[in-house]
Structures are given as C-alpha cells and as structure tokens.
Amino acid sequence: MSRESLKRAKESVFLLEKYYRLGWLERKYLVNCKYIQPYSAEDRLLIGKRLYNDFVAWQKGARLTRDYDEIYVDVSPAVTRDMHEGYSAERFRHAIGRLSKNLLPIVYRIVLEEKEIKAPTKMSAREKLYFNDEVKGMLCRGLDELIKYRHR
Length: 152
Known about the structure:
Layout: H1 3-11, H2 15-22, E1 29-31, E2 34-36, H3 41-62, H4 81-98, H5 104-112, H6 125-150
Antiparallel strand pairs: 1-2
C-alpha cells in the first residue's frame, strides 16, 4: 500500500465521502415495481468506511505471514496469518466474499482503490448521464449488501 493511501486513511477523506456530499449515496432503486432506499446515505457511508478500515488491517496482516519456502529448524509454533490479522481482516475477507460478483468491481474500485469510474470519452452527454446513474446504483446496491451482511 502506498504512503498516499495510508495518508488518506488517517485523514479520513476519500472518494466515498465526496460522493456522499454530492448525493450519490442517496440513490433509490427499483425492487418489485417500487423505488426504495432501504438504508440511509449515512449508513452507506459508514459501511464503506468500515470496509476500508478492515481492508487496511488486512493489508497489514498480509505482510506478516510466514514464508513456507524458508526452512525453519526451531520447534517454536508457526507464525500464521490468523495470529496477526485479527477480526477486522477476517471481516474484510467475509464481506468481500458476500458481495455479488457484478457489484464487487464497482465497490472495490471506488471504496478500496479510491478511483473514479469515468465514462468513455466517445459517449454522448446523455449516455454519460446514464452511465453515471448506473454506477451510482451499483455502488449503492453493493453497499446495501454489505450492510445486510453486517447486520446478520
């Protein structure tokens, strides 16, 4: 992880907060012929922050794993990933596993990589609006799935 990502984690200012201020996380979507918003924008922002913090903890724990290619001669217990990662890394792995496969790239790119998903330049203005609206919807659905998973 780069120093810039760690700096953003400490400052707690990232792309999802920008989208929250722009109103992206207040998106309603169609379910059973009704437009609903099952969770508030604040809930979606909070779950995104939790996922990001768990991701940072997972990154730290991944560096402390044992190298099994190296030969050890002492009889001390093996240092495993579980000893160092803790609960937040475990929560991250389970949460990512619970996301739908079509929503995972959107949530991963916006929340964890903090990169915007931009429409291709060859699109017309109307197509770009539809594209952005679809990205908003997929982001909100992905965050809603994470909220459902965390509240079980």
